[in-house]
Amino acid sequence: MKITLKNWLTLLILSLVWGSSFILIKKGLNSFSPYQVGSLRVVFAGIMLLPTAFIHRKKFPKKNYPWLTICAVVGSFIPMFLFPLAEMHLDSSIAGIMNALMSIFVIVLGAIFFKYKTNFGELTGVTLAFIGVILLLQTSSSEGHGGESQWFYFVLLIIAAMMYAFSGLLTQKYMGDISPLAWTAFIELVLFIPAIIALYLSGFFEVFSQKDNAWEGVGYIFTLSLFGSVLANIFYYKLIGETSASFASSVSLLMPIVAFMWGLVDGEVLGFIQITGGILIIAGLYFGRKNIKIKYPFTKSKKAL
């Protein structure tokens, strides 16, 4: 596998786009509920990609439908709700840091379900990231908004990162010769009707008569959907096809930094323990990309003494 300059530039752009998603979710939550944010994001993406799905409808292999559906539900639909739910109680910068676990889960799930071989660097990365998560969880001992514990919302972010990783691994295995644009379009097509139903049942249309900033929220979610769902997913799946799910998941190395910077701009403040935990997670991602070999300096030379 040869990594080109174009692949690195794609990775950088994805980091900037997805790293900005968390602050857009936060802004959308000022107008709408987590369920409305998640379902409207999927509806917008579906509308934008419906023409593409229609054009490619006869080119998509039927044997891949089950895997496409699993990727759609696990890698898109459910996480779209988990992140807004968590960000009702946690800072957007924390959500960005926790999403970095996606890269770690690619290593873990790849070894468990896809028989990928792991090396010492990846094991070191998993260990450091695990310690980082433990430190982040220590901050959840305080009560969240409304008096409830924040632990539950950290768990939601961990589950979402795990789902993203599993979806990426499935995509690498089953997308095959299908174009990233067509794959993304069909994922959104599968989710379009369920998202419309969820949006209607959430009372979305009543919000416009109750809140003056409803249209502002729509603008944030549209931007999130266009860049964070449609364009970013197309380039992400393309990157997986050109490289691997492991390399593509390296986007999570830079995403926390972008999310953290947006959090600072928006007045969020992280404590020392949170910053330390975030640094350990990013360090874990760095070592997880390294193929570290252990040298044994005390082994005997092959030459006779």
Q: Report the end-to-end length measured between terminal Cα atoms.
A: 42 Å
The global form is globular
Radius of gyration: 20 Å
The biggest beta sheet reads: none
| Share of β-strand residues | under 5%
> What structural category arises from helix and sheet content?
mainly alpha
**Average pLDDT over all residues:** 82
Secondary-structure topology with pairs:
Layout: H1 5-19, H2 21-28, H3 34-55, H4 65-87, H5 92-99, H6 101-113, H7 120-138, H8 151-174, H9 180-201, H10 214-242, H11 245-248, H12 255-265, H13 272-288
Helix pairs in contact: 1-10, 1-12, 2-5, 2-10, 3-4, 3-9, 3-10, 4-8, 4-9, 5-12, 6-7, 6-8, 6-13, 7-13, 9-10
